[in-house]
UniProtKB/TrEMBL annotation:
<feature type="transmembrane region" description="Helical">
    <location>
        <begin position="145"/>
        <end position="167"/>
    </location>
</feature>
<feature type="transmembrane region" description="Helical">
    <location>
        <begin position="278"/>
        <end position="302"/>
    </location>
</feature>
<feature type="transmembrane region" description="Helical">
    <location>
        <begin position="222"/>
        <end position="240"/>
    </location>
</feature>
<keyword id="KW-0472">Membrane</keyword>
<feature type="transmembrane region" description="Helical">
    <location>
        <begin position="114"/>
        <end position="133"/>
    </location>
</feature>
<feature type="transmembrane region" description="Helical">
    <location>
        <begin position="32"/>
        <end position="54"/>
    </location>
</feature>
<dbReference type="InterPro" id="IPR002657">
    <property type="entry name" value="BilAc:Na_symport/Acr3"/>
</dbReference>
<keyword id="KW-1133">Transmembrane helix</keyword>
<comment type="similarity">
    <text>Belongs to the arsenical resistance-3 (ACR3) (TC 2.A.59) family.</text>
</comment>
<protein>
    <submittedName>
        <fullName>ACR3 family arsenite efflux transporter</fullName>
    </submittedName>
</protein>
<feature type="transmembrane region" description="Helical">
    <location>
        <begin position="7"/>
        <end position="26"/>
    </location>
</feature>
<keyword id="KW-0813">Transport</keyword>
<feature type="transmembrane region" description="Helical">
    <location>
        <begin position="246"/>
        <end position="266"/>
    </location>
</feature>
<keyword id="KW-0812">Transmembrane</keyword>
<dbReference type="InterPro" id="IPR004706">
    <property type="entry name" value="Arsenical-R_Acr3"/>
</dbReference>
<keyword id="KW-1003">Cell membrane</keyword>
<feature type="transmembrane region" description="Helical">
    <location>
        <begin position="75"/>
        <end position="102"/>
    </location>
</feature>
Amino acid sequence: MGIFERYLSVWVSLCIMIGVGLGLLQPQVFQAIASLEVAHVNIVVAVFIWVMIYPMMLQIDFSAVKDIGKNSQGLLLTIVINWLIKPFTMAALGWLFFNFLFAEWVDPASAQEYIAGMILLGVAPCTAMVFVWSQLTKGDPNYTLVQVSVNDVIMIFAFAPISAFLLGVSDIQVPWQTLLVSVLLYVLLPLIAGVLTRQWLNKRRGELGINQFLAKLKPWSVIGLLATVVLLFGFQANTIVSEPQIIVLIAIPLLLQTYGIFYLTFIAAKRLKLPHNIAAPACLIGTSNFFELAVAVAISLFGLHSGAALATVVGVLVEVPVMLSLVAFLNNRVNQQATQ
């Protein structure tokens, strides 16, 4: 894991402080950026998020889908957790905490937006960072590729309807058109661009060319992520300074969801007697989130200043330290078994 991935929470925390500081000192700059919208899509944020997502999509090799039949139990476990369980437990936790347990500290309108942000995180299973977690746990890289590729295919068709259903159940009105445009803009088009670029590079220079191109793009992906965080917290500066406890309140159900989904998947993988190199990626892919997509859709649906956008960024803040703790847990388990 590179220095950026290892200390992602540190960089995000620094960008949060920078964003809040700039938002308080130069609110007119952020107001001007917020006004640059076309069809509810902020142009500046859209560019930053594309810079983040495109290199991740370039890593996906959809030719791996032909191996879908190998170790089908592990793949089935991933699909069930990601699409039949995780979105609904996230929605349930958001509803429980912000409509009941935290109701006296959060106004109803803000509570609905925080729930919406959590739902969008829950319906977006991770793509790129899964390769990092799989590598750290000595997971099967080819099988991880199959898992991620199949998940991306499902995401094209399932993200919008599941999101709309859960947001509707939570009494949050969402325009279908905006949600479908978000999927097109932030999932389908980057996927197509990544596939076409990968095919072109592979024909000209092979796998080495693909890796070299990804290495050149990586710094820009980092810049896109951190710039988006600065912008989001700049837009939210006044709310954060006046109500800093909101970050903690959002983080609590997100932490419970992350650890809960992990242990549910871990127990299921153990019952299925999956080998470690299959079980570890299966556990981690269902636990982590495609936060870049969640952030983009939250902004498109609810706006840059919304609680939904804030909730998705808090997901970035808590994810990496939590995932590293789970990687350590899995590695300790396999080491213990090896010494027995």
